[in-house]
């Protein structure tokens, strides 16, 4: 009986740790004006919102591990360009990262960006 209780306790701790690990990687979003928008020679789209860190969110030519497929990336780029041109606000949603808008590392490849909304 003691062995069974030990196994139950160990499994309970393991499940608790699993939930805590998942909670540390949550979805987040960044909203504001597009302060920088660029495409590099490998077709990666780079963006900064409200003067925050510059980072890539997708690739215009290949999936390359990003959430956006190339056609979705082209639509996201068009949305960001329209917002920048009109000086309007956009929102970018990211999933499963332990970051906030201000803590994204500069020049990071943010493969978890999955939604662009705006301009508004």
Explain this structure to me?
The chain is of the alpha+beta class and 120 residues long. It has a single domain, classed as OB fold (Dihydrolipoamide Acetyltransferase, E2P). 32% of the residues lie in helices and 34% in strands. The protein contains 2 helices and 6 strands; from the N terminus they run αβββαβββ. It has a 6-stranded mixed sheet with strand order 5-3-2-1-4-6, with helices on one face. It starts with a helix and ends with a strand.
Using brief descriptors, characterize the structure shown.
120 residues; alpha+beta; OB fold (Dihydrolipoamide Acetyltransferase, E2P); 2 helices; 6 strands; 34% strand; globular
Whole-number mean pLDDT = 84
Please tell me the total number of domains: 1
Helical residue percent? 25-40%
Largest beta-sheet characterization: 6 strands, mixed
- Placed side by side, the strands forming the largest sheet appear as 5-3-2-1-4-6
Radius of gyration: 19 Å
In sequence order, what are the helices and strands, one letter per element? Answer: HEEEHEEE
């Amino acid at each position: 009986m003691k062995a069974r209780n030990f196994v139950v306790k160990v499994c309970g701790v393991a499940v608790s740790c699993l939930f805590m690990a998942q909670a540390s990687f949550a979805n987040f979003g960044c909203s504001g004006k597009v302060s920088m928008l660029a495409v590099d020679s490998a077709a990666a789209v780079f963006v900064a919102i409200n003067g925050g860190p510059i980072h890539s969110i997708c690739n215009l030519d290949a999936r390359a591990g990003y959430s956006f497929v190339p056609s979705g990336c082209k639509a996201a780029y068009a949305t960001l360009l329209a917002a920048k041109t009109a000086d309007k606000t956009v929102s970018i949603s990211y999933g499963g990262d332990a970051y906030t808008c201000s803590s994204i590392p500069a020049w990071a490849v943010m493969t978890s960006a999955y939604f662009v909304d705006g301009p508004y």
